[in-house]
Amino acid sequence: MTGTNLKRLHVITWGCQMNVYDSGRMADVLAPLGYGPAAEPDGADMVILNTCHIRDKAAEKVFSELGRLRRLKEATGGRMILAVAGCVAQAEGAEILARAPYVDIVLGPQTYHRLPEMVARASRAGGAVIETDFPPEDKFDHLPESATPQGVTAFLTIQEGCDKFCSFCVVPYTRGAETSRPVAAVLREARHLVAQGAREITLLGQNVNAWHGEAPDGSHWGLGRLLREMAEIPGLLRLRYATSHPREMTDELVAAHRDIPALMPFLHLPIQSGADRILAAMNRKHTADDYRRIIGRLRDARPDLALSSDFIVGHPGETEADFDATMALVRDIGFAQAYSFKYSPRPGTPAAGADVQVAEADKDRRLQALQALLRNQQARFGAGCVGLDLPVLFTGPGRHPGQIAGRSLFLQPVHVIGMPSLIGHETTVRIVASHPNSLAGTLIQEKQIA
Ligand code: 5AD
Ligand code: SF4
């Protein structure tokens, strides 16, 4: 795949880590057709826009980006193949083709393995190709092993889709029902990633802790058991998983946090609201106290566990008292970091049709108050790391000459002055300063730990 055969593929990725992972797999599946990476869309032979539908004005954003790409396509004399993938493609495929007829391919997240065939059809037919059905076969069975190494920290999708149907969320509609990848396939890909240089793997899924699978001996495994097996892979130093639902936090998974040193003491566990009324309206099927109890069990298992979460302010029906309950929960738990969003109505979801929408000004005010509190907690957590000696896994060069960058156990970026030869290794670092989104440290032992 060198020389004149090389076609240039540029992938634009919006949204979650699962989209980042998917973009990599789309590049992998196109590599045998001669497509290699292009840093810019200008002059590329193919551009894929991998979209996200979770919040904000997703469709408008897609159409405005497509307008820009249209001009780039025209500059290639129309030769550039333009594909729209991801959740907006899944939800709005027909509208995309109606409003942007210069798009060649529209494909939903479950059909990425069919991309080579779609490219062939698009080149032949001259008409647009749309594939947004949920095919009977599993795309993962048909995707090649990743050709391009992800680096020191890698993602591995083990679960997709969601059956939880939270009132506000499009995922069950765009990603379909919950499915789990089989144990053998997950372990094979994990070993492949480690052979390519990965030292940390984050297992991904919309509901990753709902993952379950049949083991080689016929027994049934949950995520806790899978993590135990993953931890045995030689060369793999660190494990993480995201994103989880509180209802799937089994005893086995909690025990994994106690028993597996490689499982990092940082967990992203969305709660969305601290008010039971709103949790019920959201169809979360747990209360704020259920969440507090789960956190208690996790902290008993792993006392240094740092927590992250997702919050939505202004879900339909949210009162000032409900919002106060969210603030109280945040104060009770104490988060190392968290994401918070204004509720945004998603077409087709139950909450979008509710007649008790919260005024925009109230949403703004609540978001500001919540984010100020969360920022404060994050700063306090960072400041608490100063003076500690923490293992850091170095992932690449830093921003300034002589610097290298890595990650703490708690996923904070850490910068030190150090040799590039430490990249790919875990070393103890004395943390000397905390910044809003990162830590600075000094190497206290040149000898690498692993
Ligand atoms: N409005 C605002 N935030 C949302 N999220 C999901 N759907 C919506 C919506 N309609 C947030 C949730 C979820 C995260 C990925 O995005 O907090 O956990
Ligand atoms: Fe969306 Fe709820 Fe499923 Fe998470 S659990 S993906 S918020 S429906």
Q: Quick recap of the structure?
A:
By secondary structure, the protein is an alpha/beta fold. It has helices at residues 17-30, 58-75, 86-99, 115-125, 139-142, 171-174, 183-195, 223-230, 251-259, 276-281, 288-301, 320-333, 360-385; strands spanning 7-13, 35-37, 46-51, 81-85, 105-107, 129-131, 153-157, 159-160, 179-180, 200-204, 212-214, 220-222, 238-242, 266-268, 306-308, 310-313, 339-342, 389-397, 403-407, 413-417, 426-435, 438-443. It has 13 helices and 22 strands.
Topology of helices and strands:
Blueprint: E1 7-13, H1 17-30, E2 35-37, E3 46-51, H2 58-75, E4 81-85, H3 86-99, E5 105-107, H4 115-125, E6 129-131, H5 139-142, E7 153-157, E8 159-160, H6 171-174, E9 179-180, H7 183-195, E10 200-204, E11 212-214, E12 220-222, H8 223-230, E13 238-242, H9 251-259, E14 266-268, H10 276-281, H11 288-301, E15 306-308, E16 310-313, H12 320-333, E17 339-342, H13 360-385, E18 389-397, E19 403-407, E20 413-417, E21 426-435, E22 438-443
Parallel strand pairs: 1-2, 1-3, 3-4, 4-5, 5-6, 7-10, 10-13, 14-15, 16-17, 20-22
Antiparallel strand pairs: 8-9, 11-12, 18-19, 18-21, 19-20, 21-22
5'-deoxyadenosine (5AD) binds at residues 54-55, 168-169, 270, 272, 310, 312, 341, 343-344, 346.
